[in-house]
Design brief:
This protein is mainly α. Helix content is about 80%, strand content about 5%. It starts with a helix and ends with a helix.
Amino acid sequence: MCFSATVSFGGAAVLSTLGIASMACSRTPAQRVLSGIPIVFSIQQFTEGVLWMALQHPAWTKYEHIATYGFLVFAQMVWPVYVPFAMLLFERDPKLKKIIAGLLATGILLASYIGYCLYQYPVSAEVGYHHIKYNLDFALANAWYYGLLYFLPTILASVISSVKRLRWLGYLFFISYVVARLMFHYFEISVWCFFGSLISSMIIGMIWKFNKESKLAAQS
């Protein structure tokens, strides 16, 4: 998370608490997977907190390499697969289910390729203007269309969902992604994950409303 190690560690604590509470309230496999989003974000933000410490305190320098790669694995590989998978579990419309399945396949291919690039090419991180900039030294990361490839599975899958609450989640992810890309171009990886973390805190409310509606439907 951008800003500081304190914000990252604090955010990780809040998100893990919300994620665990949401998981406890979940009644279906789809809800449990959705509840995992803030938990994964909490691990990711904890990793970036460690990176903040490594970049600013010599005693933590030994953790810089693993923290950099750890954060990038979550940011660049996990979300293009996790998000469409979560949306697919909720989807009931046959046509949309096929489209989201296609987006999931796209996400798996993208994550696999990025994993290969992270293994083959050096990456680094540096602090600037109260944010962390991640330097990815492979061609795809610097191509103009990379943002589109990342957008398709990670954001579009929720935007097109037939479930209204998931669509709103997608809209917020989309808006935050555009803001991060346009206003924080050099720091968009870190900044968008910050926005995503904030948005994911809404999931516990979504799970509660899903269960309330199911209870009312059962009573009617």
